[in-house]
C-alpha cells in the first residue's frame, strides 16, 4: 500500500483512521471501539441462490457486527479538493443496509435494491482509442453488492461509514474488503451563484464486498489501477502546451441509467433530454472525496457541488425517483491501451426508491 492509504495502526485507545489527499497529508484520527460477533458468511456472488440472499437479508443483525462505537474527533473539471469532516455523529448507531431491503432483480419490488450483472453496462472496449466503440463490460466486477441505505439529514453527512455498523469482513490483501459509496443528494433549490453547497438532503449509501474471484476475474492492469486509486497516486497527463500531473482518482467514472424510461410519462422535451443523457458516463471529479477505514474504502459523491445546470436538471427529476428503476455503477476510465477494456468496480440496481418515506436522521450538535 502506498503512503497515502497505509493500513491503520491499532493502539490501546482504539483504531486510528487516515484521511489523505494528494495536495497535503494532514491526518484526521478517529478512535473507534468495536466488538465483533461470531463470523457469518455473507453471499456476494450473483450466482448464489435468491433464497440464500433473502436469508442473509433477514438475518442482517447477525451478518453485520454488533457494536457500539464511541467516536472522538481530534481535531469532466480541473481541480481536486477535500473538506474537513464534521465531528457531529448520529444520535444512534445505524445498522448498515437496514433501511432498503434486498429483492431479486426479476421482481423489481418498489423500495428495494437488487444485484446487477456488470456486463449489462457498455464501457470503452479493447480498441476504443482507435475505433471509439463501446462494448458490454466484462462479466466480473471488483466488488459485489451487500446492501443499501437512504438517510435524510438537515445537512450533508461526509464519511458516513463512521456512523453505521460496517460488516466484519476482512479479506487478506492490500485492497479493502468493503467499498462504501455515499451519494449526497440535495433537496433544496439550486442557486445560480453556487454560494450554497450544503443543506437538507439525502445520503444514498451503497455497500459492496470485495469479489471472492478478485484475482481471477480481473486483469492485472485493472487491479493495479484500483491500487493506484486507493493509494491516491498521481500520473502525468499529456496536454497542450505542456503535460500536467493529476490525481489517479480523477479517472473515477460514474455509470448511471434509468431502466424503465417508457413508464415515466415524460414530455417530448423530457424524453429528448433523457435520451441524450441516459447511460452517459460522468467523471466524478472534483465532487468526490475518499476515506480509508480499517476494512473499507468510502467514496463520497457530492451532488451538492455539481454545476447549477446539472443541479437544476437533477432537481426536476427528484420527484420521479420513486417511479424509476435505476442502475448505478463505477469504473476507472481507460485512457491507455493497457487499461482497456474498462472493468466495473461495482454495480447495483435501486428499485423505485421514494425518499419521502424515510425518516430524518438526528445529529448530535
Automatic annotation (TrEMBL):
Please name one Pfam family that this protein belongs to.
EDR2_C
- What segments bear the compositional bias annotation Basic residues? 17-27
What range(s) does the Protein ENHANCED DISEASE RESISTANCE 2 C-terminal domain occupy? 113-354
Q: What is this protein called?
A: Plant/F14N23-31 protein
The organism of origin for this protein: Medicago truncatula
Ranges for region Disordered: 1-27
Amino acid at each position: 500500500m502506498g503512503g497515502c492509504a497505509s493500513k491503520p495502526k491499532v493502539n490501546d485507545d482504539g483504531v486510528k483512521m487516515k484521511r489523505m489527499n494528494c495536495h497535503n497529508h494532514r491526518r484526521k484520527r478517529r478512535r473507534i471501539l468495536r466488538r465483533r460477533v461470531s463470523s457469518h458468511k455473507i453471499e456476494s456472488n450473483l450466482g448464489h441462490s435468491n433464497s440464500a440472499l433473502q436469508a442473509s437479508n433477514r438475518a442482517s443483525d447477525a451478518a453485520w457486527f454488533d457494536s457500539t462505537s464511541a467516536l472522538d474527533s481530534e481535531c469532466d473539471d480541473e481541480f481536486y479538493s477535500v473538506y474537513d469532516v464534521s465531528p457531529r455523529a448520529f444520535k444512534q448507531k445505524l445498522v448498515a443496509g437496514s433501511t432498503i431491503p434486498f429483492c431479486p432483480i426479476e421482481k423489481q419490488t418498489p423500495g428495494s435494491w437488487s444485484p446487477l450483472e456488470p456486463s449489462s453496462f457498455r464501457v470503452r472496449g479493447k480498441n476504443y482509442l482507435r475505433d471509439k466503440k463501446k462494448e458490454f463490460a466484462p462479466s466480473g466486477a471488483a466488488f459485489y453488492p451487500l446492501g443499501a441505505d437512504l438517510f435524510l439529514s438537515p445537512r450533508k453527512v461526509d464519511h458516513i461509514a463512521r456512523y453505521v455498523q460496517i460488516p466484519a469482513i476482512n479479506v487478506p490483501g492490500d485492497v479493502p474488503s468493503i467499498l462504501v459509496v455515499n451519494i449526497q443528494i440535495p433537496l433544496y433549490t439550486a442557486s445560480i451563484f453556487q454560494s450554497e453547497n450544503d443543506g437538507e438532503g439525502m445520503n444514498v449509501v451503497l455497500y459492496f464486498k470485495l469479489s471472492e474471484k478478485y484475482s481471477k476475474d480481473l486483469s492485472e492492469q485493472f487491479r493495479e489501477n484500483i491500487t493506484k486509486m486507493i493509494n491516491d497516486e498521481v500520473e502525468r497527463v499529456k496536454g497542450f502546451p505542456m503535460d500536467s500531473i493529476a490525481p489517479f482518482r480523477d479517472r473515477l467514472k460514474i455509470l448511471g441509467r434509468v431502466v424503465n424510461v417508457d413508464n415515466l410519462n415524460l414530455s417530448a422535451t423530457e424524453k429528448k433530454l433523457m435520451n441524450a443523457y441516459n447511460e452517459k458516463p460522468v467523471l466524478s471529479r472534483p465532487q468526490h472525496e475518499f476515506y480509508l477505514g480499517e476494512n473499507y474504502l468510502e467514496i463520497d459523491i457530492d451532488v451538492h457541488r455539481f454545476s447549477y445546470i446539472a443541479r437544476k436538471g437533477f432537481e426536476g427529476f427528484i420527484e420521479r425517483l420513486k417511479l424509476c428503476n435505476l442502475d448505478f455503477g463505477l469504473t476507472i476510465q481507460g485512457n491507455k491501451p493497457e487499461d482497456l477494456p474498462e472493468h466495473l468496480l461495482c454495480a447495483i440496481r435501486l428499485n423505485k426508491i421514494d425518499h419521502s418515506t424515510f425518516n430524518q436522521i438526528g445529529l448530535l450538535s
